[in-house]
């Protein structure tokens, strides 16, 4: 099973032929700028398309703190996405309180553990909207 940087490497080498379909769901690669280092970082994330945008969830498995990629996007919302062989630029934003329920439901439908992750932490787990630019 692919995971972490091995997942990123195989996804990039095969244009997502290996790594896009993962544990019954779909995964993209998000490349963002690290907020402390300024270096580009790439992470695989479960995603869903939604009204022309792409949704991801900053769950970190329900840990008490947001994932590093989310903090990086808060500092610099301009990033790149790869879905299979399609690579494009995005601007990230956190879903509004009005948008989130529908988006959460859509994401939880493809990865039901999101509800469990939310129950494990006091922080509100954000849904992130990646808008093509």
TrEMBL record:
Pfam families: F420H2_quin_red (PF04075)
InterPro entries: F420H2_quin_Rdtase (IPR004378), Split_barrel_FMN-bd (IPR012349)
Membrane-spanning intervals of the chain: none
Catalytic activity: oxidized coenzyme F420-(gamma-L-Glu)(n) + a quinol + H(+) = reduced coenzyme F420-(gamma-L-Glu)(n) + a quinone
Top-level taxon of origin: Bacteria
Family from the record: Belongs to the F420H(2)-dependent quinone reductase family.
Protein name per its UniProtKB record: Nitroreductase family deazaflavin-dependent oxidoreductase
Organism from which the protein derives: Actinomadura adrarensis
């Amino acid at each position: 099973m692919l995971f972490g940087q091995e997942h990123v490497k195989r996804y990039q080498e095969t244009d997502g032929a290996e790594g896009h379909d993962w544990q019954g769901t779909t995964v993209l690669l998000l490349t963002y700028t690290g907020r402390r280092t300024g270096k580009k970082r790439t992470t695989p994330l479960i995603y869903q398309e939604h009204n022309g945008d792409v949704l991801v969830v900053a769950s970190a498995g329900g840990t008490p703190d947001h994932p590093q990629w989310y903090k990086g996007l808060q500092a610099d919302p301009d990033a790149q996405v790869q879905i299979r062989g399609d690579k494009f630029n995005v601007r990230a934003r956190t879903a509004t309180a009005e948008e989130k329920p529908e988006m959460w439901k859509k994401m939880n439908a493809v990865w039901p553990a999101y509800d469990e992750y939310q129950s494990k932490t006091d922080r509100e787990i954000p849904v992130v909207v990646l808008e093509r630019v």
